[in-house]
Protein: 1-aminocyclopropane-1-carboxylate deaminase
Organism: Sediminibacterium goheungense
Amino acid sequence: MLINIENIYIHPVKSLSDTQVQTDILRLDLIHPVISGNKWFKLKYYLEEARREDAVCLASFGGAYSNHIVALACAAKEKGFNSIGFIRGDENTPLSATLQEAAAYGMQFIFVDREAYRNKEAITQQYHQPGWYWIPEGGYGALGAEGAADILKTTDTSTYTHILCATGTGTMMSGLVMAGQPHQKIIGISVLKNHLSLENEIKTLLPDTAHAFFECVHGYHFGGYAKHPENLLAYMRELWQCDALPTDIVYTAKLCYAVKDLIAKKQFPVNSKLLLIHSGGLQGNRSLPQGSLPY
Ligand SMILES: *Cc1c(COP(=O)(O)O)cnc(C)c1O
């Protein structure tokens, strides 16, 4: 199934709007059921470079629940590359749903323990083979940010005062900061606990000519990466009921919750126009017990 960029559209989010603040959402999740949202944008220039270098196999890194890994596996298959994932953890535990899906796209895995996983450079040197093209974990790098910058070019986003996204590695956010305009502020909701190096990791990817202001918000991780307490799930059901908006437990639900809370705390000036980035990731909800969500 091909990537459908033309499926992307913006719609209002009633439950996140009031008389003073208007909130819309950019639906990147609709481009593909697996390579959804920002993952496609972050990967696309790496894939082009791999093609130019006549690579036959794409190699990258991730955890057992990595959206990046499954998106890469799917994109590789679609574009005619082999793929190999260096996975943090133990191969003796049953494969997660994410890895099963990546395997179904033909990805091979090499499992590395936590200690070894920290040193990506050593893994690359140890395993590299001719014809392999390495993509950084989470797509974090200049090409990933450049691809993410194209997110704001899919449609006219110039009238928004604030653009808000969920951040993991910060790659997508770097792209938004690069593509944003001087009157816009880019706000990232970090889904990791105590990821205080995030600002610097974003700055590292920015050229000197980056345009928009940016800010990272650290108080909405709900206990840490992929943690999803019942109050988050309850909020996801509420969003579905009010706005027919599906969100995922790792990223977009935390983004929307944060926006709701920041609006309630009057953190946005009167007449602000917010654009949320729906960055995808819905397939991650499959790790929930059946029936946890109405979608
Ligand atoms: C990976 C991912 C993110 C985070 O992107 P970064 O560029 O790593 O910050 C946000 N939302 C979804 C749905 C994702 O899958």
Remarks:
- Residues 38-139 form a domain with the Rossmann fold fold (CATH 3.40.50.1100).
